[in-house]
Amino acid sequence: MSGEVFPDGANHRRYNVRGERDEWLATVFIGADGVFSTVSDYGNYGHYWGSPSCDIRAFLCRVSNDYLAAKLSPQWATDVDATEVEIKRTIIRLRRDGTLDAEQAREEWELLYCVRDGDSGGWWAQTTLGQHAYPGDLWQQMRSPQAVLFVERVMPRLVAMLRAELAAEKAAA
């Protein structure tokens, strides 16, 4: 960790987060004013919490991975595997209840290549499942895989550094 007081008077700290084999994982910048910024092997992120009512380092030590991933990367990604499973379930259900005949079910099944190829537009343009089920419910989403990996692999190491720093400051006071 290194700290520097910038011309605006804010105290910003820099943390170089390393892995088990001392490999670089991320460089994290934390500002006393609530700024969090990082460059990492798992993406580059930033968020501003505003003037926090507590030390931002203590705050970061207690937030959940889901919360942090949502703040750092609010975008969603398509969960291709879950989407394919949901579409297959729907085709099977509609075939069993007689809504789709064998040919319609086969055509829908063949459209799954669009899902596997990440061509959501191609699937949406060709599917007829929208007549029987809301297609938006079939398309499954997940948090950005990179952001999830960041909070799972980098944050525990950063939190350990922050806790040690806070404990040392408390002992010195």
Q: How would you sum up this structure, described in words?
A:
- The chain starts with a strand and ends with a helix.
- 49% of the residues lie in helices and 22% in strands.
- The longest helix has 28 residues, at 145-172.
- A hairpin with a 2-residue loop joins strand 4 and strand 5.
- The strands form 2 sheets. A 5-stranded antiparallel beta sheet has the order 1-2-3-4-5, covered by helices on one side. A two-stranded antiparallel sheet has the order 6-7.
- The chain has 8 helices and 7 strands.
- The chain has helices at 56-62, 65-72, 80-96, 102-110, 112-116, 120-126, 135-138, 145-172; strands at residues 2-5, 11-18, 24-31, 35-40, 43-48, 76-78, 141-143.
- The chain has 173 residues and is α+β, with helices and mostly antiparallel strands.
Unreliable runs? none
SS content category: alpha+beta
Global Rg: 23 Å
Query: Could you tell me how far the N terminus lies from the C terminus, measured between alpha carbons in angstroms?
Result: 19 Å
Q: With helices defined by DSSP (H or I, 4 residues minimum), what is the helix count?
A: 8
The tally of beta strands, per DSSP, is: 7
Per DSSP, what share of the residues sits in E-state strands of 2 or more residues? 15-25%
What form results from the Cα inertia axes?
elongated
Roughly what percent helix?
40-55%
Question: What is the helix/strand order?
Answer: EEEEEHHEHHHHHEH
Strand order of the largest sheet: 1-2-3-4-5
Major sheet description: 5 strands, antiparallel
Overall pLDDT: 89
